[in-house]
Structures are given as structure tokens and as C-alpha cells.
Amino acid sequence: MEDYIGRYGNLSATVWEPAADIYENEKQVMILVDMAGVDPDRVRITLENRCILITGERPRPSPPGVVRIHQMEIDAGLFERRIPLPGPVDFDSSQCTYKNGLLRIVLPKKPRQGTIQIFVESE
User: Fold this and answer.
1) Cα→Cα distances 100→18, 23, 103, Å
2) The whole model's pTM is what?
């Protein structure tokens, strides 16, 4: 067991990634994230280098009176999900809701700018 932990690190410190779906239309980008069992107050969403970063923590469900565990597939603990955005968005006008275990983030698209020309000055 020590060899296993030495090779793969501290197992209690692993970070998992929640599943996400990304949709787009002419006006907005919508992201749905599977967050069943997560307290929405424990979720942080930031915009970083044209990526949405979603972090938080889901507690391990602990049914009372458990003597043995036969199977554990539900991810728990710290999570992090980095989602690259398909284009520029207006993060200040974004909306975020949590319902039935799904986090829904709606990001209005920024209008595409026309061609920008930069003039070179000689010294």
C-alpha cells in the first residue's frame, strides 16, 4: 500500500472533474455542470484566460450505521473544472442558477469587433 501511495500521491487530496455540457447559439454560451449533492454556496466560478474555472467541494455521502463499503463510485471532495470558451463573452452580464443538481451558467457573447489596425511609427 505504501508503494501505491508513493506512486500516486495522497489519495485524499485528489481533485475530481464534474461532467459538463456546453451549448452555443448566436447570442450566448450556456454551460451545464452536473453538481448533484454540492452546496451552491461552496462553488466558485471565475473567468481565467478565456476559460471558465469552476471549483468547490462535495462532501462524501455517509449513510449512518455503515459497517462495510461494497462499492464507491460517487466522486467527493474537492473538484475543479476548467472549460475553454469558444469566443469572447460578457462575464459581467452572466447568469448562474442551480436547480435539481445542475449548475447552469449563461454567458452572453461579446460582439465581434471589426478589423483593428495598428500603425507603426518610425523614430
Assistant:
1) 15, 19, 9
2) 0.76
